[in-house]
Amino acid sequence: MLSLYLLDQPVRIFLLVLVYIGILAQLGSVIFTWYLQKDRRRIWRIIFESFIFLHFFVLCLSLSVIQVQSLSAQLTAPYLALRFALMIAPLSGVPLLFEERQNSDALAMIALIFTLPFMENIFGSEYYLSLIFSTMLLLLRAIAQVSQLRAELNTSITRVAMKEAFDSFPQPLAIGLQDGRIDLMNSAMRKLILELELAPKDIKGLEELLLAKADLHEGPPRVYALSHGDCVYHVQGESFAAPHRKYRILILNDISDEADLINELKLKNSELIHSNEQMEAILAQTEDIIMEREKTRLRNRIHDVMGQRLSILHLYIQQMEEGKAPPLTEITELLDSMLEDLSKSANTEVTATVDQIRDAAQLVGVQFSFIGKLPTDPKRERLILNIMREAVTNAIRHAQAKNIKASLVEKTDECILSISNDGRPPLLPISEGDGLKGMRFQLEQIGGSLELPHKLPFELRAVIPKLEAESAK
User: Fold this and answer.
1) Which of 13, 86, 168, 268 is most buried by its number of CB atoms within 10 A?
2) C-alpha 235: how far from its chain's center?
3) What pLDDT is recorded for position 285?
4) Which of the two residues, 398 and 226, has the higher pLDDT score?
5) What predicted TM-score, i.e. pTM, was given to this entire model?
6) Using an 8 Å Cβ cutoff, are 68 and 1 in contact?
7) Which of 182, 55, 176, 37 is nearest to 109 (CA)?
């Protein structure tokens, strides 16, 4: 280092200016490196840049202040120890060469080697040229390094802004690097992890933990739905590649509205299924009712067609055995009407007239009389005639009546049919058979009623409502 003090004043001042600029540039490089590269794996970068700064600082002291000849014994030893300690500066850059493989680091190591104290013995009086060349090289590198780190700082500021925007994203979101480390995670994801009490080691572990808590809904598409509180999230992970890295992004989309719609659809579908089952049951019951009504109608038809006339025929045969029956020719008309009615279609209504009822009764010696006027409505006329025929048949068959009277009284809103006979009174309460049940059913279908007496004199009473047109008249 003694040759430094033998330099010409202009050369020494030029070299000193370079060193001052180098100190400032390298100080900026150290600060930016420390700020941007806090990762422990990059500690060698900070150490290497710090050694270069110390090199500039010691060189500045050597050029501007310290004269070894004038140093006291106490200061000479520490200064020389510091100077020679800087010999390890090039060695601190070796790990960087293996890790980052940057040419600028290799040039800096070479420049540091050319400034080591033993180089003074090699170059002799020309050592200052090696020192100027190395200093300029380190200065240019420091300036380039500061420029690069400043650009990275601007990028880092952009990254901070991006993290803030990322953090404001409402859906839970996390991004992992290729090695599995979680690079970014917004506050919504952190809050969810805390509430679910998860402890993920990496992005893959986080995804597995979330999927384990989610319910799989078979598709297509297959959906993992995570329910938490009032929210339902769709857990979705995707991989994508950037120019120099691969990433794994994990996002939880809020599908609460969709889940509510699906649940509502399921409820509606369940209600439809239940309604369909009820409808099927109602249809089955309706079919049973229709079948039962059809059976009743056919039974009533057979009863209406055959009942009275079979009863009359039975009494006629009894009278023949007793020698009291009229000539056989008088029963021929009755038999012919039976054959004619049985041959008619099942849907054809068979109704006797008042005269036919009277004539059939007279065959067995029974007198039947009717007072009143039948309604103009065919349906009600047919109903009244069927009731009279059934009542006459029951009076002849069960009460052995000889005189039967029927009357139809017309009122404002209804007609009242009364039928009485002089036969034997019933000893027990009347048990309604198919005939009486059929009459009651037909009356109730149109809003009427049937009344059977519980005391003498016996009188059947049927109430038949009028049509609106008839009531208006």
Assistant:
1) 86
2) 15
3) 87
4) 226
5) 0.38
6) yes
7) 55
